[in-house]
Amino acid sequence: MPKTAASTAPATLADQLARDIQSGVFGTGAWLKQIDLQERYGAKRLDVRRALDHLTQKRVIEHVPNRGYHVHAIDEQRQNHVRDIRALLEVGAAADLMPQVTDAKVAQLRALAERFEQLVLTGTLLQQYEVNLQFHEMLYDLCANRELVSLIHDMRSRAVAAPATQWMTRARIEKSVREHFDIVAALQARDVKRLQKIIREHVMQTMP
């Protein structure tokens, strides 16, 4: 059913498309033809292109030059390897960042955790993604070892984005909310071991 013009601005269209990918309307590896998306969403060609480019930047989909856009054909083994390396780096970062923790930084991270919680209830999928990203960037920016920070960001960039893979169930995204607050609590208590445990669970996507 074509959508109204008001619902197909590029940002809104990108979120609609991300939700359809998440829900399985467009399966793993599916090619996203612009003409089909124009018809499905009642959108202008330029708005579809902007939405596709936006989702490409967020790693929800992939652009192949001279061929088009497609949903990530996930190499499960590669993603598992990336996840394992992320866990090693990010758990290791907990001890490095703890000496730089201040009450002001804890308050800033708590505000982002609260914002993420609110967006889970009222926001769009991509708004949730952006605030989640801000939370983790602020957390690891506390590290004194800047090479470690660089490696963490590099490995996070190799993983497929959360809207496409990590938040496939309501239970998982709600667990992410709780883990953010648990991270803040561990930072406030200056509890490195507790922080390492939470980060590992968060990266490994352990289900409840």
From TrEMBL:
Keyword DNA-binding: yes
Pfam families referenced in this protein's UniProt entry, alphabetically: FCD, GntR
InterPro entries hit by this protein: GntR_C, TF_FadR/GntR_C, Tscrpt_reg_HTH_GntR, WH-like_DNA-bd_sf, WH_DNA-bd_sf
Entry GO MF terms: DNA binding; DNA-binding transcription factor activity
Chain ranges of the HTH gntR-type domain: 7-74
UniProt keyword annotations, A-Z: DNA-binding, Transcription, Transcription regulation
PANTHER family given in the database record: TRANSCRIPTIONAL REGULATOR, GNTR FAMILY, TRANSCRIPTIONAL REGULATORY PROTEIN
Name of the protein in its database record: Transcriptional regulator
Origin species: Bordetella genomosp. 8
